[in-house]
Every structure is written in structure tokens, then in C-alpha cells.
Design brief:
The complex is a heterodimer of chains A (461) and B (473). Chain A has 461 residues and is of the alpha/beta class. Chain A is 37% helix and 13% strand. Chain A has a domain of 205 residues: Alpha-Beta Complex (Amidase signature (AS) enzymes), CATH 3.90.1300.10. Chain A has 14 helices and eleven strands. In chain A, helix 1 runs antiparallel to helix 2, helix 4 packs parallel to helix 5 and helix 8 packs across helix 11. Chain B has three domains: 285 residues, no CATH class; 109 residues, no CATH class; 59 residues, Arc Repressor Mutant, subunit A, CATH 1.10.10. Chain B is built from 16 helices and 16 strands. Classes of the chains: A alpha/beta (461), B alpha+beta (473). At the A-B interface, helix 8 of A face loops of B.
Chain lengths: 461, 473
């Protein structure tokens, strides 16, 4: 298929998605697809030749706006592009669209976008997860084979689980953050959705590798495209007991049991492990991420970019109050307030200092589990399948708990991925693999192996 | 004196790099507003800072020159506050883990002589931009060329006891930093900015008084003036039974007075925390030692060596080492054969004058040495040599050729000298008579007359024997 034909087909699919009100996409146009096709025709073929890829709208692109799902950046077009996007374009990928998200990636359902909620691709009454819900839904709906999302605390694995697709968060530092609009910088990772492990792995192989523009980028070569293993013999897979609570959703539990049985069949040794500080992950995350966000979002002050400032303001304080009060939605304002509070004089030690120490303990839990001879960990990605729209919007804490199984991995900087393992009452169930720091490829190889042995569309009970 | 003054200084020095602290933008001065900018220093969404290795190196050099302990691990932190010229809404600085701590600087106090001032810390940070309140009526313009320029903040202990000592500290610090190649310290370009903390207490009182901070004074002389004014104000408050409020003062150069800016109680909570975009700065011990070895000779050591090696007076050594270039020029002169004290006199005099006027050395050390040589071998007088040097500055040439052209070569030819001596004796018969009658102190007058008759060309060393011979005939 020629790139022209791919662009045209992508345009049809995007138009159809819009027509059914998926609202997964914030920016795309026929003209832009044609522009991309022309660019690729003039460019030699690359490892991702002609692969249409959607980009979460908090990742800077040159030719489409970058709004982060926020009024405060409405119409903003970045004068530079993210390193990951540049590498995709150079590898021959076609940048298809910019996808909807929870405002500034803060949320777990993509209901917090200033530009409307994203529908679940299989059930419009449900959420696709978040914050990368637009990318997850678009891949889940089969519009694109792969998309970039971003994770701060599970924002790709969780929607991947809900939407029945593969979602991979690499080790912190393996993919450059340059051009990813910062939320919680010590946690933020550009991450990847794929219809298959292979799709995700090809994209990761392209965008990973050292970037001199990001001081936290790891000095390691790009990842190899992971080849599935023939079996899992010799592999020890740990099941952290804290991730299998008694009240775990029955469908999710069945999905896990089914997958564990397949792992055993493939020769893996399954062991029980403990990550004792797991219960502190969500509270720790909700101190550290907002603290960093409170500084990262200070630049949206109305002075240099964003919508035109209102006339007749008496002073600069009024400019800040008006710009930020009108520009940020309630969830973003809530997190800025929390973050400002936990960093305040007199509270720093009690909150931020303590959270940093807890973060170190959570990371140490993982280190000890791996040091004891476990190669990978396996857990449910989410406590439930996709929940109903509006179900958790009135209760932020319930919303935060949707990330209970994905948060720890982010705090520890580890690679983690979610693969679809089956369906419960028609909704996808995701299983999570977690690898030691820097062992992203091991996780992808095993996921590739499982993918070939699991019927992701079959009911798990 | 019933009051003791206590002063501590915070100095921001621009590190002499070509590019900014966390991006590749130029640090060049005087460009059009907002031209030395990029996504990083504009704080655009998605841009990330990457530390400038040269800025770190220069910071370390400064710390070593100040005899600080350079820490193997230091941490960049975000200092959060809103201001239109602060693009990210935070400044990247260092807070609880600075680059270096506990150094010292020896200064010459105008009141107490040699003393050592403690250096609390030296840390790295980026500069903010500049708010321009006078460009557009009723509006504030923002120039971000300076945003992200690398700075070292150097904080002294409260060891200074007078505005004069504060000035001496600044002068010595500036000289040290220029020597070490840390900064040009150009005051006009704002490379060095001073915030001063001052309090007063009764002599002998154990605790410090309440301090005030005088911010952003633009010259060392004004620091001294501002502190004089603030000291007087605090003493007046206390002597009238009042208490000093902890405030920030703004110095008005026009009136020479400092006035309160804002109350410290209302000051910001900067909510410092480690910058997650920047891993801890780790410096290998060998690398730091290497930088220490690479430090040039610093002013104090140079002064001591000039005294020991060349037998110069302490005063001369101080003047010559005020700038490396002057001391180097002096040593070149000596190496080329000039006698040290003569070379020192020349450098402190005519050479320094032309250096200050031109910013360089219009006459090379080799040529200047040749001028000094003409004096030493009696070819020209010292006065004539100064004329020769001045001519070399304006028109160039070789010293001997210039001396000849200006007719400044001293005449030693016996018959020529005899002609001038005879003429003077003939014109002053009274003085000659009195000399011969024992008034020998008139010899000086007669030598002077001969010099005058020769229009300065006669060699004074040759004149005296001829005159004595003729007078005794």
C-alpha cells in the first residue's frame, strides 16, 4: 500500500471515528495527512515506513497544535517538536493526529479534558481510561496501529487495559522527555500503545535511545525490536500478593488466573512475592506528582503564550489570576493547590520529604523482589474493567485509586506493560508485566510470547 | 564609638561563558531584546534544561579560588515565584546542597588591616530576564536575553564591620574572580551585582541586631554609600528608642539614601525542591583537583612573589598585581633586562596611564624595555625618555630613532660640554667667583645652568667633571 493510500485510509477511519463521536482526536485534517504523505514520498523508506501513528496532545509537534487538552493552551502551536516525534518522522511514520487527554495528563478517565470526554471504543457509556484515553481509544478502535501516550502514574497502561490494547511504559530515561509537556518530571515517560506487542516494540525501538536535550535521558542505545520467545522455560515470574486483594473484581481475577495458567504451560515458574509498601503508592504519588506539577505549570502565566490576555487588568497579579483561573480546569487547579501546599515552608518535611523517603522504599521493594531471583512480576493492570462515565468524577480519591496497580511502577521508574488477556462481560481485561530497571526488552519478549497464546477477545469465565 | 556595624554580602557574578546555563543561547550583551532566546530559556512547554559544563567548571574555579570545599554532589533546585521576567515561574538555583561551602577571602580593611572574611557558600543558578518599565507608557516590557545566563552566588559570613570593609571585600573579590578567569566582572554589563545585609549592635553585645537588606546596588562606591546611609538610619532609629524592622531597602543613587522596599514578613515562600529535570551534579575528585592545579597564580600569591623575587616594595607589588596584564608586563620588562624597580616605576607610571586610556599596551614590553635601557646607559634623561615613550604611544617607531628625531640624545662629547660650560661661566662671573671663594653649594646651580644652556641635551653625569675641572683652572 502506498503512503498516499495509507493516508487516505487513515483519513476515512478518523472521519468515521469523529462521526460516531469517539472524541479521541483533538487535531487532524485531510490537508495534514496529505502533507505527511507527500513528506514520506520524498523521504526514503525507514523502519516504520508508512505506519500511521497518533500522538497524545501533550507531546510537541510542529504541524499540529499542542494544547494538552487545556483552554490555557488553546490554539498553541509549538515552534519545536519532541525528540520522539522527530525520530518517528525520520523513521518513516506518518503523524496522523493529536489525541485527546485529561487536561495536562491529570486524570484516569479522560473526562477531565477541556474539549470533552473520550468514549470507550466498545461501550460509549464507559470511559477509555486516562489520561492517554484518546490514544488508547484510537488504537482500540483500530484507527491507527500505534500511538504515543504519556505516563506519569499509569496513564498508558491503565487505558490500554480498558481499551484492550498493548500499552508500554519504558524505564524512566530510555525515551527522551524533550517535547513532552511536563507534569511530574521525575515520573513522566513517553509511552506507547500498540494493537500488538510487535507494533509497540517497533515504535519503542525508534523513539528510545539517548538524547542530549534531556539531562535525565539514559546513555544507552535504542531498544531492539523484541522477538517473542518460543516458551517461558527458565523464567521465574513473581505474583506480588498485594496486587491480588480479596475484593479484586471477579472478571479481572479470572483473567489473571487464565494468564498464569498459560505462563505455567509455557514453562515459567510462578512464585509468590511481597511488595510490602504497595499500599502507600497512591498517597505517595499524589504528593510527588502534584508538587512537581505546581512548579511545571507555573509557566502558564499569560505573559508569553496562550490565548490573548483580557484587556483592562489592573496589575500583573490580576493577569495571573484571570489567566490561570479561567485557563485551568478544576482537576488541574486541585493538583496545583495540593502541590503548592505540600512544598510550603513548614509542611515540606511532613509531606514532600516523607513522600520521597516512601518512594525510595517502594523502589526498594521491587529491587529486593528481583534480587531474590524473580525475572518479571505479573499483576492485574487495573482493579476493574472500564468503569462508567461519571462514576468517579465526583470523588477524586476513587478516581485516583483506579491507578492503584500502576502507580508503584512509575514511582520506581521501572518498565511496565499491559497486555489484553481476555474479556469480562465484553470488556477487556489487562495484565501487567513489570521488569527490573532497564530490562524493557525482557518484558516485551515475554509479552510477545503470551500474546500468541492468549485469545484476547474471549470471555475469561 | 558605641555602635558596631555587622555586614554580610551576597554577590551575584555572571560566569564568563559564551552560552547560557541550560541552553545554547549566546550570553552576548547589548543585543536587541528577545533575540538571544530559545524554547528552553523562554520556558516553552516541553523544553528541558541541560547544564552547561563550562559554567560548572567556572563555578568550581571560583569556589577553589575562594578556598571553598567543593562538594562531590550538589543539587539544582527550583526556586518558585511568579514574575513576568521569570519565564518558567521558577528559577533554577541551588539550595540545601550547594556547589561549595566554607571558603575564605583575605582583605585589607581600611580600619583593621589584614583580615579574613568567611565565605558561607557559592552556588550556581540562572539569571532571570529583565522587566523594562520605561519603554512603553503604562506598560511593562520583558527582555529575556538575560534569562538563563549563568551566575554564581557568593555569600559571605557576617564578618565585615564597616562600609569601607564591604568595599574592600568587593574589590578583592572582583580581582580574584577576574584572575581566576571566572568572570570579566564588568560592572557596566551587570556582571557583578551586590545585595548587602547590615545590622548594628552595641559594642560588646553578644547577639546580632535586626538586619536589613540593601538590594541591587550597581557600583562598589554606591555599596559603600548605601551602607553608610543605612547604618546611620539604623543607629538613629535605635538611639531614639525605636526598633529596626527587618526590611529590604532600595538604594537611590541620586539621593544617596536607602529606603524600605517591602517587608520581609510578606516575602515569598519560595518552596524550593530538587529540580527533577536535572540529576544531582556529581564532580569527580580528580577532576576538581585538576581544576585546582589549573588555577593561575592568584593576587595574594603574586604580590608575595613580586616582593620576594624582585625586591619590590609592598606598595609596588600591590599596584602591579591589581591586574594580571600589568604584572605580566612588568615581568616581561625584567626578563628583557630592565632593572626591577625601574621597570616597576615605568609600569606604575606611563605604562599604566596608556593602559588605562587604551585598554592595552600600545608600546610592547620589548620596546618599553629599550626606552628604559636608554635611560640606564645615559643616552637620554628620564624626562626625555618619558617624551620618547609618549611619542611611541602616538606615532610608533623605535626608541633611539625617536630620541634622535626629537633631539633628546644626551651629549657626552667633552668639547661640546666644554663649550656649554665655558658659556655658562662667562655668563655668570659672580657665581663662579663665589664658588671659587668656597661657596661650593653653587655647583648644583651651575650644573643646572649648563643643562639649561644645552636645552637638556647635556649628559648631567658628564657635565659635573668638566665643570669642576674648569672651575679649578
Amino acid at each position: 500500500m502506498s503512503v498516499r493510500a495509507i493516508a487516505a485510509r487513515t483519513g476515512e477511519l478518523l472521519r468515521a471515528a469523529d462521526a460516531r463521536g469517539l472524541n479521541a482526536v483533538l487535531h487532524w485534517s485531510e490537508a495534514h495527512l496529505e502533507f505527511e504523505a507527500a513528506r514520506l514520498e520524498g523521504q526514503g523508506p525507514g523502519p516504520l515506513a508508512g505506519m500511521p501513528i497518533a500522538i497524545k496532545d501533550n507531546i510537541a509537534t510542529l504541524d499540529l497544535p499542542t494544547t494538552c487538552g487545556s483552554r490555557i493552551l488553546e490554539g498553541y502551536v509549538s515552534p519545536f517538536e519532541a525528540t520522539a516525534v522527530r525520530r518517528l518522522r525520520e523513521a518513516g511514520a506518518l503523524i496522523a493526529a493529536k489525541t485527546n487527554l485529561d487536561e495536562f495528563a491529570m486524570g484516569s478517565s479522560t473526562e477531565h479534558s477541556a474539549f470533552g470526554r473520550v468514549l470507550h471504543p466498545m461501550d460509549p457509556t464507559r470511559v477509555p481510561g486516562g489520561s492517554s484515553g484518546g490514544s488508547g481509544a484510537l488504537v482500540g478502535a483500530g484507527v491507527v496501529p500505534a500511538a504515543l501516550g504519556s505516563e506519569t502514574g499509569g496513564s498508558v497502561r491503565q487505558p490500554a487495559s480498558f481499551c484492550g490494547v498493548v500499552g508500554v511504559k519504558p524505564s524512566y530515561g530510555r525515551v527522551s522527555r524533550y517535547g513532552l509537556v511536563a507534569f511530574g518530571s521525575s515520573l513522566d515517560c513517553i509511552s506507547v500503545f500498540g494493537q500488538t506487542v510487535q507494533d509497540a516494540s517497533r515504535v519503542l525501538a525508534t523513539i528510545s535511545g539517548h538524547d542530549p536535550l534531556d539531562a535525565t535521558s539514559l546513555a544507552r542505545p535504542p531498544m531492539a525490536v523484541a522477538a517473542p520467545r518460543a516458551d517461558l522455560r527458565g523464567l521465574r515470574i513473581g505474583l506480588p500478593r498485594e496486587y491480588f486483594p480479596a475484593d479484586l473484581d471477579a472478571g479481572v481475577r479470572a483473567g489473571m488466573e487464565r494468564t498464569i495458567a498459560v505462563m505455567r504451560d509455557l514453562g515459567a515458574t510462578i512464585v509468590d512475592v511481597s511488595l510490602p509498601h504497595t499500599q502507600y503508592a497512591v498517597p505517595t504519588y499524589y504528593i510527588i506528582a502534584p508538587a512537581e506539577a505546581s512548579a511545571n505549570l507555573a509557566r502558564y502565566d499569560g505573559v508569553r503564550f496562550g490565548p490573548t490576555r483580557p484587556e483592562g487588568l489592573p496589575d500583573v497579579g490580576a493577569l495571573y489570576r484571570t489567566t490561570r483561573g479561567r485557563g485551568f480546569g478544576p482537576e488541574v487547579r486541585r493538583r496545583i493547590l495540593i502541590g503548592t501546599y505540600v512544598l510550603s515552608a513548614g509542611y515540606y518535611e511532613a509531606y514532600y520529604g516523607k513522600a520521597q523517603r516512601m518512594r525510595a522504599r517502594i523502589a526498594d521493594d521491587f529491587r529486593q523482589a528481583f534480587a531474590a531471583g524473580v525475572d518479571l512480576l505479573f499483576t492485574p493492570t487495573t482493579p476493574t474493567t472500564a468503569f462508567k462515565a461519571g462514576e468517579k468524577t465526583e470523588d477524586p480519591v476513587q478516581m485516583y485509586l483506579a491507578d492503584i496497580f500502576v502507580c508503584s511502577v512509575s514511582l520506581a521508574g521501572l518498565p511496565g506493560l499491559s497486555i489484553p488477556v481476555g474479556r469480562s462481560e465484553g470488556l477487556p481485561v489487562g495484565g501487567q508485566l513489570i521488569a527490573p530497571y532497564g530490562e524493557d526488552e525482557r518484558m516485551l519478549e515475554v509479552a510477545g510470547t503470551l500474546e500468541g497464546r492468549l485469545d484476547a477477545t474471549a470471555e475469561v469465565r | 564609638m558605641t555602635w558596631e556595624t555587622v555586614i554580610g554580602l551576597e554577590v551575584h557574578v555572571q560566569l564568563g561563558t559564551r552560552s547560557k546555563m541550560f541552553c545554547g543561547c549566546a550570553t552576548s550583551f547589548g543585543e536587541d531584546p528577545n533575540t538571544n532566546v530559545c524554547p528552553v530559556c523562554l520556558g516553552l512547554p516541553g523544553a528541558l534544561p541541560v547544564p552547561n559544563g563550562e559554567a560548572i567548571r567556572l563555578g568550581v574555579r571560583g569556589a577553589l579560588a575562594l578556598e571553598c570545599t567543593v562538594h562531590p554532589v550538589s543539587v539544582f533546585a527550583r526556586k518558585n515565584y511568579f514574575y513576568p521576567d521569570l519565564p518558567k515561574g521558577y528559577q533554577i538555583s541551588q539550595y540545601d546542597k550547594p556547589l561549595a561551602t566554607r571558603g575564605r577571602l583575605r582583605i585589607d580593611s581600611p580600619e583593621r588591616g589584614q583580615l579574613e572574611v568567611g565565605i558561607t557558600r557559592l552556588h550556581l543558578e540562572e539569571d532571570a530576564g529583565k522587566s523594562l518599565h520605561d519603554r512603553f507608557p503604562g506598560l511593562t516590557a520583558v527582555d529575556l536575553n538575560r534569562a538563563g545566563v549563568p551566575l554564581a552566588e557568593i555569600v559571605s559570613e557576617p564578618d565585615l564591620r564597616s562600609p569601607g570593609e564591604a568595599r574592600a571585600y568587593l574589590t578583592t573579590l572582583k580581582q580574584l574572580l577576574v584572575y581566576a578567569g571566572v568572570s570579566d566582572c564588568s560592572m557596566e554589563k551587570g556582571h557583578l551585582r551586590v545585595d548587602a545585609n547590615l545590622s548594628v549592635r552595641r559594642v560588646g553585645a553578644p547577639a546580632f541586631g535586626t538586619k536589613t537588606e540593601v538590594k541591587n546596588v550597581n557600583s562598589f562606591a554606591n555599596v559603600e554609600r548605601a551602607l553608610e546611609s543605612e547604618r546611620a538610619r539604623q543607629i538613629a532609629v535605635l538611639e531614639s528608642g525605636g526598633t529596626v524592622q527587618q526590611v529590604t531597602m532600595l538604594f537611590d543613587a541620586a539621593t544617596g539614601e536607602a529606603r524600605p522596599m517591602r517587608s520581609k514578613e510578606q516575602s515569598h515562600d519560595y518552596r524550593y525542591f530538587p529540580d527533577p529535570d536535572l540529576p544531582p551534579l556529581v564532580l569527580r575528585a580528580e577532576w576538581v583537583e585538576d581544576e585546582r592545579r589549573r588555577l593561575p597564580e592568584l593576587p595574594e600569591a603574586k604580590r608575595a612573589r613580586l616582593v620576594a623575587q624582585y625586591g619590590l616594595p609592598t606598595y609596588d607589588a600591590g599596584v602591579l598585581s591589581s591586574e594580571v596584564a600589568l604584572a605580566d608586563f612588568f615581568e616581561e620588562l625584567v626578563a628583557a633586562g630592565s632593572e626591577p624597580k625601574a621597570a616597576s616605576n615605568w609600569v606604575m607610571g606611563d605604562v599604566m596611564t596608556s593602559y588605562n586610556q587604551t585598554g592595552g599596551f600600545p608600546v610592547s614590553a620589548a620596546v618599553t624595555g629599550a626606552v628604559i635601557g636608554l635611560v640606564k646607559d645615559g643616552t637620554v634623561s628620564l624626562q626625555a625618555a618619558k617624551k620618547v615613550y609618549a611619542e611611541l604611544v602616538t606615532s610608533g617607531g623605535t626608541p633611539r630613532e625617536v630620541a634622535e628625531r626629537l633631539g633628546l640624545i644626551q651629549v657626552r662629547d667633552e668639547s661640546a660640554l666644554e663649550r656649554w660650560v665655558d658659556a655658562v661661566m662667562a655668563a655668570s662671573p659672580g657665581e663662579v667667583e663665589r664658588y671659587r671663594n668656597g661657596e661650593t653649594k653653587l655647583l648644583g646651580f651651575l650644573v643646572g645652568q649648563v643643562m639649561k644652556a644645552s636645552q637638556g641635551k647635556a649628559d648631567p653625569k658628564g657635565v659635573q667633571p668638566v665643570l669642576l675641572r674648569r672651575l679649578s683652572q
